[in-house]
Amino acid sequence: MPLRGLPEHRRRHPRGGRLMTRTGIEYLRAKDQDSAVALVAEDPDAAFLAGGTTELDLALKDRVVHPSRFVDIGRLPLRGVTRDGDRLRVAALTTMEELAADPTVRARLPLVREALLLGASTQLRNMATIGGNLLQRTRCRYFRDPDVAACNKREPGSGCAAIEGVARMHAILGAGPSCIALHASDLCVPLVALDAVVELLDADGPRRVPLTDFYLTPGDRPDVETVLRHGELLTHVEIPLLPAGTRSAYIKVRDRTSYEFGLTTAGAAVQVDDGTITMARVGLGGVGTVPWRSWEAERVLVGSPANERTFAAAAQAAIRDPFTVPGTEFKVELAKRTIVRILRTVTS
């Protein structure tokens, strides 16, 4: 029973059927969803393990999180994409590559497919799960370096080293003096724009949360990133399909065209009727502490002509009151240009 990414030398746990890894982390394989939820809920330091592309890095490589127990959900029947009318229901263990290859995603959700393909290398896309992507932690170098003491995400009240450090890859929207860590997911950008909903399960039963309400901006508690409760399992993501005739796309601006995190990204979906924008969805990445839905840009766009003046006004509205530090000021103008570019793309 190999534990992916963990040292292979391990001893059997005295309670039987469980393994204690050489790192001291208990490993259990869940038989079903209810047992997975119970095994995590009973231990305040337990964590779910799926593809492991983020969780294993944080625990074993960076050593900035310290789970006492991994509950492996990798064999649960939470994989696949099904269509229900005008919506897709994506099980959490579906890989990024599987979702990108889905025929309905190809035909009706180009912005989702493009975000998936630009979000990771082929090797990672074949391992990384959709649920894991939505729950990935920030790539902030200060958060991921345990030798940096000042990180409010790791140690509430300790400060934010990024404020006075190198901050090129940090956020300008939803940020503040307590934290400027960036949410790194590409996929989440189009999903918030599309009003996706996550389905969660714990001992009290299932619940549904709009993705726009799922993530929390830092405020005074940067360590609390989502509304997810301990022991609650993300089981599915529901994605509304775009109406026929909608144009959509995803753009990622980065330092190099090979696999790299974005400086600014944008996903947009637009309908145009006789030169007037009748529907608009805009999501931004590379700039927010959470996946950023730009309601302000959408309000400017709907009912306006599809021209450069409208695009510039939407960009101006989207990047309002940014919180910048030395190193992130350039993102204000770059984000505006990225918005104009994506709007040109989907209306041309």
From TrEMBL:
Keyword list, A-Z: Oxidoreductase
Keyword Oxidoreductase: yes
Domain called FAD-binding PCMH-type: residue spans: 20-244
PROSITE patterns: FAD_PCMH
InterPro entries attached to this UniProt entry: CO_DH_flav_C, CO_DH_flav_C_dom_sf, Diverse_Substr_Oxidored, FAD-bd_PCMH, FAD-bd_PCMH-like_sf, FAD-bd_PCMH_sub1, FAD-bd_PCMH_sub2, Mopterin_DH_FAD-bd
A Pfam family reported for this protein in Swiss-Prot or TrEMBL: FAD_binding_5
SUPFAM superfamilies per the UniProt record, alphabetical: CO dehydrogenase flavoprotein C-terminal domain-like (SSF55447), FAD-binding/transporter-associated domain-like (SSF56176)
Entry keyword annotation includes rRNA-binding: no
PANTHER family: OXIDOREDUCTASE, XANTHINE DEHYDROGENASE SUBUNIT C-RELATED
The protein's name in its UniProt record: Carbon-monoxide dehydrogenase medium subunit
